[in-house]
Amino acid sequence: MNSDISFYDVEDRVDNFIIRKNPLKPNLQSSAKSGPKIHEDIPLTLAHIIRATQDPENPDVFITYNPDNASDPIHFRTCIVYAFVAGYGTHNTAFNKYHIDDSTGFLEASISQGQAKKQTFACLHAEATSLASSKTFKAIAESLIRLLGAARDYIDPGAILRGHNLFLRGRPNIFRGKTGLDAYSFFIDSGSSRKLEIAFADHLLSWHHNYKSTTHVTTNE
């Protein structure tokens, strides 16, 4: 790296990397044992999640299917959904709960409040604020403060409001016959152009079309 580059340039390059990096392809991981492929972070609708059941041989794996192709079940650990926040559930000390809807289904999503991460961020922010008073470290500290502020939006679910559209990464939570979603991470789609919503819908259709094609070929081999 050029030693003359400013910290502001570094910050801009980090932003550019985050925005422009190529999306990951669907991760199709094979089970350690012989059997069906176990998928990670696959795009699903809420209807897929509502139809999901736990794998009786592996409690960390869930099984769902497409209604037009129920003979080819999908085994997965984690998934990504895009949904609208229709209302609030009952928050507790560990999780914020939201009622989400994507026009295929309606369920409750639980998002961790990330208390440990919040404490870490608070310590880092306090240290950066202290360094900002030093002329030597002022540029570094101010850059860090801005980056911390941007990152905080991805760990504090308190910013999620009724009417927001969300990407959620998580897994089904099946308890007493009721299915919800435990979300590990989230992203608020605050744009008005619907580009992200359309991109997710395209990815969803493409993934499931390719999955049907793969299972069809495999079945006939």
Describe this entry's structure for a reader.
It is a single chain. With 221 residues, the protein is α+β, with helices and mostly antiparallel strands. 35% of the residues lie in helices and 32% in strands. It has helices spanning 7-20, 46-51, 115-131, 138-152, 195-220; strands at 27-30, 37-40, 42-43, 53-55, 58-64, 74-76, 79-88, 95-101, 106-112, 165-175, 178-189. The strands form 3 sheets. Strands 7-8-9-11-10 form a 5-stranded mixed β-barrel. The relative contact order is 0.15. Residues 13-21 have low confidence and may be disordered.
Descriptive tags:
single chain, 221 residues, alpha+beta, 5-stranded mixed beta barrel, 3-stranded antiparallel beta sheet
Describe the protein's topology:
Layout: H1 7-20, E1 27-30, E2 37-40, E3 42-43, H2 46-51, E4 53-55, E5 58-64, E6 74-76, E7 79-88, E8 95-101, E9 106-112, H3 115-131, H4 138-152, E10 165-175, E11 178-189, H5 195-220
Parallel strand pairs: 3-7, 9-11
Antiparallel strand pairs: 1-2, 4-5, 5-6, 7-8, 7-10, 8-9, 10-11
Cα distance, first to last residue?
Answer: 52 Å
**Oligomeric nature of the chains:** single chain
User: Helix count, per DSSP?
Assistant: 5
Secondary-structure class: alpha+beta
Radius of gyration: 21 Å
Report the helical percentage. Answer: 25-40%
Q: Would you count the extended β strands for me?
A: 11
* Helix-strand string: HEEEHEEEEEEHHEEH
- Largest beta-sheet details: 5 strands, mixed, barrel
Quick synopsis:
About 35% of the residues lie in helices and about 30% in strands. The protein is an alpha+beta fold. Helix 3 packs antiparallel against helix 4.
